């Protein structure tokens, strides 16, 4: 969930990433402590391929160009091969976030032919990884999957869920990623949602550990400049002030055209229920644009959303921006988390 929409640095130069983040199912072979979606083994429900493909096809017409699949474990989605084949044919850059444990065998091999980027989740050294994943041997299996990626895909990387003391292992993580010949290390702060609320409720960031993470990232990105792209989903307040377009769509106008929609909402989310949301995964359902099963055209959903909700979106971004500028104590900011929290404060579940 990048804040500056630059996840796919492997897109051809000059193309801005406009991402559809899809959660096709919450089925997973693991049950990790930090899971933001409470994914687990044995969850049968998954999005119907035909309805999903229909919306993806329409989204390409309004400017979206990247598919980002997560979940759950995407490799458990029954029709993953059909899905990535379809989105590739529709012109998308296909990216998948995976725990890396199901990448062996001919099915995965066929799927990977249509995937441009895989981000494999990693929690630290073997013991720490297995502990967070609640499964002995998870690290070893993940490395076997990484070996498959090295042989079969152009670009792959690692994604690490940042905990307050993650700064202690960032240097190891960067070295590990380079040793494994990855091109990306994505650092995303722990989200207090799903299972993480119950298992890691006490793991809240304070400014000191945010500073340590921020500075370590800066140092490592400079040091490994030519070897690894390290993406951090945290921003300095001054950065936001100087570049409000990173986070605050100050040019939002209710009369905006449909094709301009993807320039404002560079990330569209399709959750496990088929709901289509802008802004960020986990934001208030008040902002739901529509649902893939509704039979309605995506352009009609967007049109209605812009007429009815755009002023509220502007309010949400402005209020979040103001709260960051007003809080002199907080310099390092997780914009995404703040905007999600603010969305529930301003627009609770059933507000109309
Ligand atoms: S964090 Fe990822 S691998 Fe772990 S349970 Fe959730 S979806 Fe599965």
TrEMBL record:
Pfam families: Radical_SAM. Transmembrane segments: none annotated. Residues 12-233 form the Radical SAM core domain. Its cofactor is [4Fe-4S] cluster. The keyword S-adenosyl-L-methionine applies. Gene3D superfamilies: Aldolase class I. PROSITE patterns: RADICAL_SAM (PS51918). CDD domains: Radical_SAM. InterPro entries: Aldolase_TIM, Radical_SAM_PqqE_MftC-like, rSAM, rSAM_sf. Keywords: Iron, Iron-sulfur, Metal-binding, S-adenosyl-L-methionine. This is Radical SAM core domain-containing protein. The lineage of its organism: Bacteria, Pseudomonadati, Bacteroidota, Chitinophagia, Chitinophagales.
């Amino acid at each position: 969930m990048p804040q500056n929409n630059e996840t796919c640095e492997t897109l051809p130069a000059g193309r801005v990433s406009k991402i559809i983040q899809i959660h096709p199912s919450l089925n997973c072979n693991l049950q990790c402590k930090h899971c933001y979606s409470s994914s687990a083994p044995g969850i049968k429900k998954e999005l119907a391929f035909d309805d999903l493909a229909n919306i993806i096809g329409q989204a390409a017409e309004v400017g979206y160009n990247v598919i980002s699949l997560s979940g759950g474990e995407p490799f458990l989605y029954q029709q993953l091969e059909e899905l990535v084949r379809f989105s590739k044919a529709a012109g998308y850059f296909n990216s998948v976030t995976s725990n890396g444990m199901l990448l062996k065998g001919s099915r995965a091999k066929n799927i990977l032919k249509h995937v441009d980027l895989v981000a494999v989740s990693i929690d630290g050294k073997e013991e720490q990884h297995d502990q967070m994943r609640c499964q002995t041997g998870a690290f070893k299996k993940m490395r076997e999957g990484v070996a498959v990626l090295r042989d079969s895909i152009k670009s792959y990387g690692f994604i690490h869920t940042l905990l307050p003391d993650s700064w202690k292992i960032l240097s190891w993580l960067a070295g590990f990623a380079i040793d494994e010949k990855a091109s990306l290390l994505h650092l995303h702060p722990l989200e207090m949602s799903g299972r993480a609320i119950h298992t890691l409720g006490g793991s809240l960031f304070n400014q000191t550990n945010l500073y340590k993470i921020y500075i370590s990232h800066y140092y490592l990105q400079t040091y490994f400049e030519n070897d690894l792209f390290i993406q951090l989903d945290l921003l300095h307040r001054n950065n936001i002030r100087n570049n409000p377009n990173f986070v605050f769509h100050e040019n939002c106008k209710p009369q905006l055209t449909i094709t301009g929609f993807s320039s404002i909402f560079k990330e569209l989310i399709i959750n496990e229920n088929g709901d289509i949301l802008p802004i960020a995964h986990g934001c208030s359902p008040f902002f739901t644009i529509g649902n893939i099963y509704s039979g309605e055209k995506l352009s009609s959903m967007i049109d209605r959303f812009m007429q009815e909700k755009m002023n509220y979106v502007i309010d949400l971004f402005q209020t979040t921006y103001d709260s960051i500028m007003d809080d002199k104590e907080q310099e390092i900011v997780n914009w995404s988390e703040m905007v999600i929290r603010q969305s529930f404060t301003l627009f609770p579940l059933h507000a109309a």
